[in-house]
Amino acid sequence: MSQAWLFTSESVAAGHPDKLCDAISDAVVDACLALDPNAKVAVETLVKGREDRSYIVLAGEVKLAAGISAPNYVAIARKTAADIGYVDHGIGMDATSEELCEVTELITSQSAHINRGVVQSIDEQGAGDQGLMFGYACNETEAFTEHQGRWMPLAIALSQALTRRVSKLGLDGTLPWARPDAKSQVTLAHGVDGQPMYADNVVIAVQHKDMIAEHGSEEAEQAWLRQQVIEHVIRPVVPAALMTDATTIHVNSTGRFVDPGGPYADAGLTGRKIIVDTYGGRGRHGGGAFSGKDPTKVDRSAAYAARWAAKHVVAAGLSSECEIQLAYAIGVADPVSIRVDTFGTGKLADEVIGDLVATHFSFKPGHIIRDLGLAAPIYGVTAAGGHFGRQPDGQTFPWEALKPDVLSSFKAAL
Hints:
This protein is of the alpha+beta class and 414 residues long.
């Protein structure tokens, strides 16, 4: 880069209608994998609220081992929405009420034509679909202590952290006026070296209860809400070094975001936030959503594996950023193509780094599932707040765990 530049990424909270759908779909995946680690799942969710009631529609395909009864999909959908905070029709949905929330279940068995390609041995297990996937990592987060270890573009790391914090504080009572539906956006100014210099814009929108009676006017309500968001959400997340006199903060920039919101204000669908889920636009995306899919679907598992490998490349110091593309044919185990791109930041040639990656990582679907422990109910936590740049905890986010032996081997190649 020959001049400074701006880059923006956004995120949405767990109660955003699309994320609500992702959470329900992933809750179904987890419930099926808890019963059968070899379950095949592809489930989509739609939500929409009306004045009289709200609606949740589940549609897709599931295959469980013989003799295993399907979980109660309707109960799963209701509990997931309620846990996110949708327990009041007045805010957008009451998932606990059969009278005020109708759940329709349209789930059938997996196609035999798809199943035949993914039931072979671990070495020969074919991809559950054709397609292309990308994994990305960079070192932008590593200059800031509170975000070290993420190896992510900083704008999306901050945006995701902001929405995770909004959701947490709304549920734990710190922000009792906050509803589940929220969005964030961060614009960073980057220097000629490509590294972030300061936050140009921070944008937060949070659905809230009507508080005009408490504060006396809409203006007073909004001023107080802005102060609360800055104090409890923005300052704990965005490093102080990035907040300068040039930073503009927008809180509910339309003026108000008052009840009802959520599914009442906006219909939701599984898989509509794929850039939010990944790298905020900094890394490319193959187009396939993650949520609602078991790990034989390479849209999900291969994207995780590509991120895992790319993170090792950058964390080992082989490059400042790295993107890995994988592509598959349905029913075929080996990727039809693998490409490593370090965008000119590599300390070794991309071809050499590609050989190192191929030596230490197998991208066969069966191997990915085995090496990352993906045949387990670990996906619900991924549905909101980003699939990448999160800390592994027990079985969760295994694609974020760095392997010391691989890092050592990569470093030794320098």
